[in-house]
Amino acid sequence: MTNPLFYAKILLFGEYGIIEDSQGLTLPYSFYKGALKFSDLSSDFEKKSNLSLQKYSVYLKNLEIPDQFKIDISALEEDLRNGLFFDSNIPQGYGVGSSGALVAAIFEKYSVKKYSPDHISKNELKDLKKIFGELESYFHGKSSGIDPLICYMNLPILIENRENVDKVSIPKGEEGKGAIFLIDSGMTGETGPMVQIFFEKMKTEGFRKTMKEEFIRYNNACIEAFLKKEMNPLFRNLKNLSIWAYEHFKPMIPESTYKAWKKGLDTNAYYLKLCGSGGGGYILGFTKDYEKAEKMLSGFQKEVIYRF
What is the pLDDT of residue 1? Predict the structure, then answer.
């Protein structure tokens, strides 16, 4: 029996903003993936994974889950005794949804009611997002449920606001000069502490005001332009978003990328933004000329995720 693969996800737009009711746009990223498997647990990785799943199953056992989302905990416990582990190459602390894929895999295998991503209604999506938030809170303290939802659906998702999400079609990528790419900052980031910094900042009125009036405006405009494939408005708003983050999200920007971030703004050759909560992991880059941007970012490891 082969278990389904669950891909990583990339939050293209909406980091931190979705906490404050902005829109978000997120897509599966098949370069990284994970699946539930069985083994004799002979390797350290398998042992460690099995052990952490055992701890997670205790959390699930004590969680009050509505009937339509019930999880067969005894089947999970039985499988854990028989060597179940999560085989994944999704890097942790990189903002690409390592815990989301795990939660999605557990839910897919052990939820009593089965859902078909192709035939899921908008209301069911909303309910699933909520339950996934509870299932993933074990890993992050508080979760919106978006990451596991993307991994579970394996489809691009438009986050309309705090409550509503919908399936969306992304303009087909083509072999043009432009690209959206990932930059490896070379360090891992932890979601918890970064989110804490954000909430501290939100206590000041000035930050709240600029978040609402500037960040959310630029962010939503980027999503609209991207979905319509209007590249000029997209890059105009991207630049504003990148400047805004450079000024207001300094603690979340990995130090290794400060200079590169500024260089992009000064030259307009590319623009960088956070991928997830920041602090480390990946940074997202957008450019109209990838060859030029790649040369300018020669010290970094990069992965292209979309061409245009």
Answer: 40
- Phi, psi angle pair for 117, to nearest 5°: -50, -30
C-alpha 26/C-alpha 144 separation (Å) is 13
Terminal Cα distance for the chain, rounded: 38
Q: Taking CA 273 as the corner, what is the angle to CA 268 and CA 275, rounded to the nearest 5 degrees?
A: 150
pLDDT tens digits, residue range 221-263? 999 999 999 999 999 999 999 999 999 999 999 999 999 999 9
Instruction: With CA atoms as reference, report the closest residue to 286 among 220, 228, 217, 240.
Output: 240
Task: Average the pLDDT over 100-110 and give the result.
Answer: 95
CATH assignment of 6-167, given 3.30.70.20, 3.30.230.10, 3.30.830.10, 3.30.420.40?
Answer: 3.30.230.10
Mean pLDDT of the 163-171 span: 89
Q: What is the CA radius of gyration of the chain?
A: 20
For residues 150 and 129, the answer to whether their CB atoms sit within 8 Å is: no
Contact of 166 with 158, CB cutoff 8 Å: yes
CA distances from 307 to 198, 278, 289 (A): 32, 23, 10
Q: Which of the four CATH numbers 3.40.50.620, 3.30.70.890, 3.90.1150.10, 3.30.390.30 does domain 179-307 have?
A: 3.30.70.890
Which residue ranges make up each domain of the chain? 6-167, 179-307
Residue positions counted in the chain: 308
Tokens 């939802």: give the residue.
Answer: 149
CB 274 within 8 A of CB 15: yes
Q: Each residue of 281-299: pLDDT tens digit?
A: 999 999 999 999 999 999 9
Neighbours of 61 (CB within 10 A): 12
pLDDT at 156 over 80: yes
Return d(Cα 174, Cα 265) in angstroms, integer.
25
Kindly report the number of other CB atoms within 10 A of residue 92's CB atom: 13
Cβ atoms of 6 and 35 closer than 8 Å:
yes
